Amino acid sequence: MQRLNEAKKKRAIEPWCFPVSIMGILILLIIFLPFISTDKLDQRGRSQPCNDQECRLILSESMPRHLKYPKEAPLFPSTFRTWEDLIHMAQHSIDIASFYWDLHRGEGLVSSHRSPQHQGERIFNLLVKAGLKRKLKVRVAQSAANARFPDNDTSVLQKLGAAEVRSLNFTYLLGSGVLHTKMWIIDNRHFWVGSANMDWRSLTEVKELGLAGINCSCMAQDLAKVFSVYWYLGEEPQKPVPPHWPTAYSTHINRTNPLSLFYNNSKTPSLVYMASSPPPFSSNGRNSDIDALLNVVSGARIFVYIAVMDYTPVLQDQYGKKYWPVIDDALRASAYSRNVTVRLLVSKWNHTNPAMVYHLRSLLALNGIMRGRIEIRWFEVPAFTPEEKDIPFARVNHNKYMVTDSCAYIGTSNWEGSYFTTTAGVSVVLSEPHSAPYSGSNDSSPSTNDNTTTIRDQLESVFVRDWSSKYASSVTIPG
Ligand SMILES: *[C@@H]1O[C@H](CO)[C@@H](O)[C@H](O)[C@H]1NC(C)=O
Ligand SMILES: *[C@@H]1O[C@H](CO)[C@@H](O)[C@H](O)[C@H]1NC(C)=O
Ligand SMILES: *[C@@H]1O[C@H](CO)[C@@H](O)[C@H](O)[C@H]1NC(C)=O
Ligand SMILES: *[C@@H]1O[C@H](CO)[C@@H](O)[C@H](O)[C@H]1NC(C)=O
Ligand SMILES: *[C@@H]1O[C@H](CO)[C@@H](O)[C@H](O)[C@H]1NC(C)=O
Ligand SMILES: *[C@@H]1O[C@H](CO)[C@@H](O)[C@H](O)[C@H]1NC(C)=O
Ligand SMILES: *[C@@H]1O[C@H](CO)[C@@H](O)[C@H](O)[C@H]1NC(C)=O
Ligand SMILES: *[C@@H]1O[C@H](CO)[C@@H](O)[C@H](O)[C@H]1NC(C)=O
Ligand SMILES: *[C@@H]1O[C@H](CO)[C@@H](O)[C@H](O)[C@H]1NC(C)=O
């Protein structure tokens, strides 16, 4: 009780990305309604505290081979390890929402344990085993196959009877776009959301970031509702997007009614919700990804750190290309009006859109007349060996996250218009207290008063590590 009052007081004066009054209501709910089941609360249409005492949230990263950081730099479990663990943990079901599949690189190809394809094959084989030998229910929703992404892996899974696969044709559903979500849900109890595609490169050749939740039923069940939207739409080739989603798809968890989650035995709650795009896929109560993103930006008081592969204020869809300054405006406004430091870490590789640098320089142009600052760096993943140079569409920082002084945002979308209007993605937003920031020195495990780190803390340490690494270089205005 004492602690909760303290937390409440602290929050009232601290920067926060949810309205303070909502916090008050939540705290009352935490005090008075700890044992009321989710179902009862759902029927009454109120937000609920989450009773997942065992919930563990864990960041995961893929590190491209041969990338080197100082010894003291923060390090998290690999995407490979995380996926492997999730498959092993499964007792009933594995649901995977994915863009395309290329884990296996050709049927019958047997690579050695040292080859870069090995980890992808291992995941593929574990999924086959899960479906066939372990008799788990494996379901895959994917973007419809095309010449560039033939999705041979999922055809094989389906032919073997290891998985049920549904494909979504966005040209039919929305005119343009793809299913770009990367999300795993295990037994409606564990989950992973992040930047990594179902591609062997995503495990060893591309830099990725994701969030795993173990024993986090509240979050997993909400993400499962997003999966069920894809599952519904993929049921048959010409199933249109319904004008209103049936109530079974609705959520009571959103920005104004977030989950109050005590993960990793924390004494202070994190406020959590899951957003999705595109808006036509949003069931009742679901925040759109762009609203979540903008809200996190505008809630920042000190800094906004963004790591994303592609950033351009342009929307390109079936109607052509148009200027789309939605995120640009929010970043400028934060730096201009609120003395916020905006740092943008974008990716330089062989496929960087040449227009990107012009847009980035336009953001930099206002430095000097704003209260805050906008700083931008490229992150480049070198190819260290001839073999690495030869791998197409690899060696890139593929991250899609943001961390501010009060929030962590982990998404699956690049920051360009169509990702928020016609392409499907999800994001997880965690609002949590700011503790000692990572200083870039030996202090790699910042801790709060109760000796725990938060995902926000850890994400900040990831950002600072990359921003100050030798792979980052400033974007500047020439002349
Ligand atoms: C994928 O399958 C198609 C036919 O369905 C085949 O032509 C192609 O060679 C396969 N690709 C790989 C890499 O196995
Ligand atoms: C997707 O839908 C479009 C428009 O309905 C259609 O022309 C196209 O053939 C479909 N693609 C696939 C792979 O089914
Ligand atoms: C998840 O919960 C189960 C059952 O309560 C427990 O045995 C397991 O250790 C938990 N896993 C983690 C990673 O906390
Ligand atoms: C958020 O959820 C509450 C119910 O929990 C609902 O009343 C509200 O309309 C939802 N917000 C949005 C934007 O859908
Ligand atoms: C703006 O923020 C910086 C650090 O983020 C701080 O040093 C400075 O005093 C602030 N300026 C104003 C006018 O608030
Ligand atoms: C990028 O492309 C150039 C020219 O095609 C090639 O020489 C280089 O190796 C490529 N870099 C990577 C990392 O693939
Ligand atoms: C880390 O600690 C070691 C020994 O305590 C010290 O020599 C080194 O300079 C520190 N590194 C940084 C970046 O502060
Ligand atoms: C908190 O962290 C400090 C330093 O890492 C450690 O010495 C101490 O035992 C921890 N306390 C608890 C209660 O875990
Ligand atoms: C939560 O606990 C797990 C171990 O169970 C640990 O790997 C992870 O880093 C912790 N998460 C945070 C945010 O401290």
Automatic annotation (TrEMBL):
The keyword Cell division does not apply. The chain crosses the membrane at residues 12-36. The keyword Membrane applies. Belongs to the phospholipase D family. Keywords: Membrane, Transmembrane, Transmembrane helix. It comes from Ramazzottius varieornatus. PANTHER family: GM01519P-RELATED, PHOSPHOLIPASE D - RELATED. Residues 175-202, 393-419 form the PLD phosphodiesterase domain. GO terms for molecular function: catalytic activity. This is PLD phosphodiesterase domain-containing protein. The gene is RvY_07432-1. It comes from the Eukaryota.
